[in-house]
Protein 1
Amino acid sequence: MPRTADFHSINEVKKPVDNRVYHNDSTCPLGRVVMAAGEYSLGKNNYRLCRDCDSRNGPGR
Ligand SMILES: [Zn+2]
């Protein structure tokens, strides 16, 4: 699995706090959209890990 540095969309702040996520996998569909748009910042920003990234990171977190 192609792990990347933690990053999050700069648009997450528009979501309710509980829905904000960060990504750490370059194959995550949502993460790729964020990356392609260039609308991201590095780091977790205290968000939870995106569900797609989580499943790509493998079981047993
Ligand atoms: Zn993701």
Protein 2
Amino acid sequence: MNQEEYGLVKEVTSQVLSFPTIPCTGGRYCVPGCPMSIQIPDLFTAYNSIKTYGPSRRYETWYKNHTRDGHGTASACIGCGQCEGVCPQHLEIISLLKNVSEEFDKE
Ligand code: SF4
């Protein structure tokens, strides 16, 4: 990689890192114990996609597909804390789900 290419990669990396996304690594340790059966990492994926690429019906559809068949929406969270206790990234999932809910549970 030459100096110009390196500079471009650095600039793009910096821009991507500046997006207000949730640093979930998708380990899914949080999912099995959720009493509301919320597919937490999948809802974070929908949220991160909107924050990175802008609003799109595609991400709304993704959200809807992961909040059907008995799986709770972000607003269904009852704040039990199970998920936060097992998250290796120590994410504040309860609070983050409120952000997700504001984005997707508008109806
Ligand atoms: S705090 Fe909310 S998302 Fe986490 S396990 Fe409890 S109900 Fe599920």
